Amino acid sequence: MNPELRECFRQAVFRGKPLPADWPEAFAIITAYNQEGRSDPPADNVAADASLEAKLRAEGLRIHRVTGGSADGSHLEPGWAASLSLSDAIDIGRHYRQAAVFYVRDGRLWLVDCLDGTVEALGRGFDLI
What we know:
- By secondary structure, the protein is α+β, with helices and mostly antiparallel strands.
- It has one domain (3-17, 46-125).
- The protein is built from three helices and seven strands.
- A seven-stranded antiparallel beta sheet has the order 1-3-4-2-5-6-7, with helices on one face.
- Strand 5 and strand 6 (108-113) form a beta hairpin.
């Protein structure tokens, strides 16, 4: 992932309704929007998101709508918090041609590069605004 894109991911904030009280301590945040970093047409993004949701549901995973993006809201990508292992999150991110996914473990946020699998602690907790 190029340094500019990595920095955008590092600054991401997350929007959505609060997670259920019994939500797992470890989970992934994955989107299917803008595959390969492109600005895909809205209809393509909606279709990819529906495909991702169906895939996660078919696997019997708990999911919760989370939208990630810039703090000022100028860039937003709907996605899903899903009760996945780290390796499964990377696999699904790769399947949907994502540069990265996020992983949360014990309330801490991690950035995961889907290309090489590297994991970077972002030094902050996971919060929904």
